[in-house]
Specification:
The complex is a heterodimer of chains A (280) and B (235). Chain A has 9 helices and 10 strands. Chain A is elongated, with a radius of gyration of 33 Å. Chain A has helices at 2-13, 23-51, 57-82, 87-104, 106-121, 161-166, 192-205, 240-257, 272-279, and strands at residues 16-18, 21-22, 129-132, 135-142, 146-151, 156-160, 169-170, 177-186, 216-222, 227-236. Chain A folds into 3 domains: 2-85, no CATH class; 123-170, SH3 type barrels, CATH 2.30.30.60; 177-257, 2-Layer Sandwich (Alpha-Beta Plaits). With 280 residues, chain A is of the alpha+beta class. Chain B has 235 residues and is mainly beta. Chain B has one domain (3-231). Chain B has strands at 3-6, 11-14, 17-24, 27-34, 37-43, 48-54, 66-77, 81-90, 92-99, 102-109, 116-119, 126-133, 147-156, 162-170, 177-178, 183-191, 197-202, 211-212, 229-231. In chain B, the strands form 4 sheets. In chain B, strands 8, 13, 15, 16, 17, 18 and 19 form a 7-stranded mixed sheet that branches. Chain B has a 4-stranded antiparallel sheet with strand order 1-6-9-10, with no helix packed on it. The radius of gyration of chain B is 19 Å and the shape is elongated. The two termini of chain B are 36 Å apart. Classes of the chains: A alpha+beta (280), B mainly beta (235). Chain A binds chain B through residues 51, 53-55, 174-178, 205, 207-208, 210-213, 234, 236, 238-239, and chain B through 59-61, 63-64, 68, 70, 113-119, 122-123, 125-127, 130, 220-222.
């Protein structure tokens, strides 16, 4: 009975599927791919663990994807002769199939190519903040077909790479520093020079208000309601929002502490009779 | 103040700094108050605590690994020559716990206010922790809790006079040495032209009786990566 089962198993293993490829070859190829997949996964996890605090997240992700893909490609190249597939033939067939598929699914190919161009041009990277159309948030992942954005309110948004590639992309953190501006309006009765001195001091005291380029504080305009002072401050892109939120309130508090008030919109109306009486 | 302490014996009051460890129900509470900031952490096992100067780029939060020293007065250096000068750098003090030679930083504080500056252009430049340092011809007397001494060897490899008004360093290569009176680091600046120079740190103490600080950055560096910084936006 056992010998019959063994005999039957051997016959199954040796069963020719096509040309010289047997079931045994197919199983062998499958095992190689499986082992390669496990090794690739293991190396990807190990790389993430060991290099997480030594490399930037986007560079690490690129490295992990590269290593993962190379291992799987090696496995595929190894198993193709076992499966009786000629690599040259596969490439030719792949080329022809590519053209056919390309025509049949233009959008998919467009997304794929856009993905490749985005990877090459790198207008954004994982972890960056980005504004594309009416979507704003953090880039969570960049794949070959789409880019994943987590909006500021925590929503998951998948943007096809074609859309991303053909849209204007604003990356607020692509440059290391950025400038922001306040317009502070004080009353005409207040001393503008003193106000400027206080505003400069508040900016100087904040660590993320850059020393170089220096901040600029000046009287910009004399309006109906008050004297407009403009403060232009450079801050590191990664900390500009903290700086912007903190400095303004400190300026307001310090100005008021020194008797300088923020001007309110106001209009003095003199009635004719009242004016005449005043003249008398 | 710098040195190694038993966790339960740690208690330091200096100026506005109040640092202590309280034993509570078998574990330890680390409490550090300074100005408006307060840090409290619970440590579950007894350990040794090292207080030493660390790379000054951690406060108020780590946004860069570059140190930008702007000289109060620019230095002129003759063509194809070298000179040794001393300047200062800001001190940040790291609190690092150690048990069986495994280290972990639990806190960083400083007696000086941090400030940052942009070196270069917003696109392609770098943000550096800014410090304005005076240039001295000999080792200056400074408060080791606030300022460290940086011995800077400037090599002018160009055939022109060069005016040096700043030096930017990558702190991944910074090695800090200290004793009770002096905190120091040694660096080199190789000027290739009026606009381009390389900077790097040298792993040597300034004086004989100095201990090496446990750094927060050197341990994180991949061995094959260079810690040299090329100043391409002027010196």
């Amino acid at each position: 009975m056992i010998s019959e089962i063994l005999d039957w198993s051997i016959r199954i293993m040796d069963y020719r599927l096509y040309e010289n490829v047997t079931v045994r070859d197919l199983i062998f190829a499958f095992v190689i791919i499986l082992i390669a997949y496990i090794i690739a996964k293991f190396i990807a996890i190990s790389l993430r663990r060991s290099l997480a605090d030594k490399m930037k997240k986007d560079q690490l992700e690129l490295l992990v994807k590269l290593v993962y893909t190379v291992i799987l490609l090696i496995a595929i190249v190894t198993v193709t002769p076992i499966l009786g597939v000629s690599l040259t033939g596969l490439l030719v067939a792949g080329g022809i199939a590519g053209i056919v598929i390309g025509f049949a699914s233009q959008r998919v190919v467009s997304n794929l190519l856009s993905g490749l161009f985005l990877i090459a041009e790198r207008p954004i990277k994982i972890g960056d903040q980005v504004v594309v159309g009416n979507i704003a948030g953090f880039v969570e992942d960049m794949n070959i077909m789409s880019t994943i954005v987590r909006t500021y309110d925590g929503l998951y948004v998948r943007i096809p790479n074609e859309t991303l590639f053909t849209s204007s992309i604003t990356n607020p953190v692509a440059n290391v520093a950025r400038r922001f501006e306040y317009q502070i309006s004080i009353r005409y009765s207040d001393d503008a020079n003193k106000a400027i001195e206080i505003i400069k001091r508040m900016i100087e005291e904040h660590p993320f208000a850059l020393k170089i380029p220096p901040p600029r504080v000046f009287v910009d305009s004399l309006t109906e309601s008050g004297v407009n002072i403009i403060a232009r401050i450079w801050a590191p892109s990664t900390a500009w929002l903290d700086a912007k939120m903190e400095i303004l309130w400190k300026i307001k508090v310090e100005l008021e502490k020194n008797g300088i008030k923020i001007a309110f919109p106001q209009r003095l109306i003199w009635f004719g009779e009242e004016y005449e009486n005043k003249k008398l | 103040m710098f040195g190694v302490y038993n966790l339960k014996d740690l208690s330091i009051k200096k100026g506005e700094l109040d640092l202590k460890v309280e034993a509570e129900n078998g574990f330890y509470s680390y409490i550090r108050k300074m100005g408006d900031s307060e840090v409290r952490k619970i440590i579950l096992k007894d350990a040794e605590v090292c207080l030493n100067p660390v790379e000054p780029v951690n406060l108020p939060k780590n946004i860069t690994n570059y140190l930008y020293i702007g000289f109060k007065n620019p230095v002129l250096i003759a063509p194809v020559s070298s000179a040794e000068v001393y300047t200062t750098f800001p001190i940040e003090i790291g609190v690092i716990i150690r048990r069986e030679n495994v280290y972990e930083d639990i806190d960083v504080f400083s007696f000086v206010n941090p400030k940052f500056a942009l070196y270069g252009e917003p696109r392609g430049g770098v943000i550096g922790r800014y410090w304005e340092g005076e240039v001295f011809g000999k080792i200056p007397q400074v408060d080791p809790l606030r300022e460290g001494i940086l011995k800077l060897t400037i090599l002018n490899l160009s055939h022109n006079w060069c005016e040096v008004s700043k030096a930017v360093f990558d702190v991944y290569g910074m090695e800090i040495y200290y004793n009770e009176k002096v905190v120091s680091s040694i660096a080199e600046m190789r000027i290739h032209s009026k606009r381009v120079a390389d900077t790097s740190f040298v792993d040597e103490p300034l004086l004989n009786n100095m201990k090496k600080s446990i750094g927060l950055y050197s341990a994180k560096l991949l061995p094959m990566l260079s810690t040299k910084f090329t100043m391409e936006w002027g010196v």
